[in-house]
Design goal:
The protein has 154 residues and is an alpha/beta fold. Helix content is 27%, strand content 17%. α1 (30-42) crosses α4 (102-111) and α3 (94-100) packs across α4 (102-111). The longest helix has 13 residues, at 30-42. It is globular, with a radius of gyration of 18 Å. The N and C termini lie far apart (53 Å).
Length: 154
């Protein structure tokens, strides 16, 4: 009976094993894809998940310019940016953001799903987003990961 151990293992920075994962978001809905990517970045898909440690994987997102928005969000959704000066509040529509900076649009969606503390900033550093299908991380030998959604009962 001495060989059976029921101790809970708590991961730390030296015991975490990270992988590189490629996610193709072409044709997927922005919020749903961002929530799955945030889940992987945080490490919640691993049995060794520890809430206070960066135990997630590195994620490479490709085809961010081919992401979808549902409903009328493409026309109605606005991104707000403040320059720091008086009267410096700037508004950008989702359609303009998707054509000019699709990487930034996806990064913001993921960032807002992560913790709002130092751990969230660290985890966000493990995300790489590219508008096209090419990425410069072939040397890391990333594993392709397909995001599959269950059909809704509508």
């Amino acid at each position: 009976m001495d060989s059976i151990s029921y101790k809970t293992l708590s991961a730390n920075r030296s015991t975490v094993e990270k992988q590189w994962i490629v996610v193709d978001v072409q044709g997927l809905v922005l919020g749903r894809a961002a929530s799955r990517v945030a889940h992987i970045l945080r490490g919640k898909h691993k049995p060794s998940f520890t809430p206070h440690v960066d135990c997630g994987d590195y994620v490479i997102v490709i085809n961010a310019d081919k992401i979808r928005l549902t409903g009328r969000k493409l026309q109605q959704k606005e991104y707000v940016h403040y320059t720091g000066f008086m009267g410096g509040q700037r508004f950008t529509s989702a359609s303009k953001m998707l054509t000019e900076k699709p990487e930034r649009m996806f990064e913001l969606a993921v960032k807002r799903m992560l913790p709002k503390n130092r751990l969230g900033e660290t985890v966000l550093g493990n995300l790489r987003v590219y508008a096209g299908a090419e990425h410069p991380h072939a040397a890391q030998q990333p594993i392709p990961h397909e995001i599959v959604f269950k059909p809704t009962g509508n």
